[in-house]
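TODO from last week: model Sel1 repeat family protein.
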Amino acid sequence: MRLHRVAPGIAAGIIAPALLLATPSFAATAAPTAVAVPAVPSSADDPDADDLKVAIARILADPDSGRRVTREANALLDANDPEAMRAWLETGYRLAQAEDDSVAIARTLADPDSGRRVIREANALLDANNPEAMRAWLETGYRLAQAEDDRVAIARILADPSISPALRAAANAALDDNTPEALRHFLEVGRYQVA
């Protein structure tokens, strides 16, 4: 019989990403919480190869998985080594996700449409190099920073005295709605439909 000293940690490492990634709207509706796994010394705590494959397949199914995560997850499934899968789910996934998040933030900085708040926060995140902070910002913070930058862009449009009454009404409607989606929609589509 094997000792199960690390089994709760392994189970938490497998269950937490699977639960978080299985619900894409989780980040927008609730703050992340820790997953408590009871320490029960049984063979149920030790996930078998199929459980590990399912956890990795769920990570691959997430559309937000970046290149490094995808590359490493596919290599693990091809190798079919349960110990390597277990180790990757415990530590390697976090490192791969952190690299992919850094790349996503750098791409945000390269976008010419990024506003001041997005640029300021993205630079601060890259300087701090904190994987958890980068992930949280990509899941929720970016949306909020972009919304603030969009409000400023709409206010600049409204400051132009020569805009049409229809454009002014559409801009004010977007500001009155005040959701990140409405603000972005006005700037990307709405202002061109009423101009």
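Done. The radius of gyration is 22 Å.
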